[in-house]
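User: Could you write out the 3D structure of this protein bound to 2'-monophosphoadenosine-5'-diphosphate? I've included everything you need below.
Assistant: Certainly. Input first, then the structure.
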Amino acid sequence: MSKLFAVIGNPIEHSRSPELHHAFAEKTGIDLNYVKRLAPLDGFTASVNEFFAHNGVGMNVTVPFKEQAFALCQQLTERAKIAKAVNTLWMENGILHGDNTDGQGLVDAIKALDWTLENTDILIIGAGGATRGVVYPLVKAGAKKIVIANRTRSRAEQLVADLQSAVPKAELSACSLDELDGQFDLVINATSASLTGDALILPETLTFHHAYEMAYGKPSSFIDQAKARQIPSSEGFGMLVGQAIEAFYIWNGVRPNLKDFL
Ligand code: ATR
């Protein structure tokens, strides 16, 4: 019988996870069935319990349940503890385990582009859950300085205060979008601006060599500006594949090659 996996969210119809995991399975010769699971907004825990009670092996968690998944787990990886959000669940000896593969997915996607992270100065725009999940993996991969810029400056300051002790080797700082300035190796857009169709305007005094958009699937004014300046950029599909590969590896012990799926 094939191993059963699911991605749980609300909404869930748009998810590309089943398609990715079936492609990995075909490449690696693993027999699995990966389905979409719509949970009612007040029914996340019941849906997870029901899935694992009926021989489910692993679950990915997407919007808006990643924080609830974090709270539900009895065992968490270090990076999930720091992210305070979980996107990958599995059961081991009756204990619900959780991990967060989003940050490593971003790191792997950046490496697949042959952009270096070693000793880099990075600007992350946004200070929500998406930013929280990627700071620790970026520093582990070599980032030296990270500036977190946010429309609401206090949220960026709070995130820096929360995360600095988890990444003692890196220098974190906060600023507002009005204060954006200086030179960076890489700028990452971790805001939800493109998802809501809002423009994000970067000042000319901000210079950078690479641009990564984390919100895949919608037109992004951030990417448009990078392209207009002829700066190498990526619209986020690699991160989506990267986080899926990392989850596939946790569950199946085999790691597909990211570049095969871009
Ligand atoms: P996520 O979990 O995806 O990070 P979130 O916690 O809602 O979602 O955070 C969304 C981020 O996008 C926030 O940093 C938000 O800025 P504020 O903290 O000021 O709200 C940012 N954001 C959303 N729309 C934006 C816009 N139009 N311009 C700039 N930043 C925006």
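DSSP finds nine helices and twelve strands in the chain.
User: Perfect, thank you.
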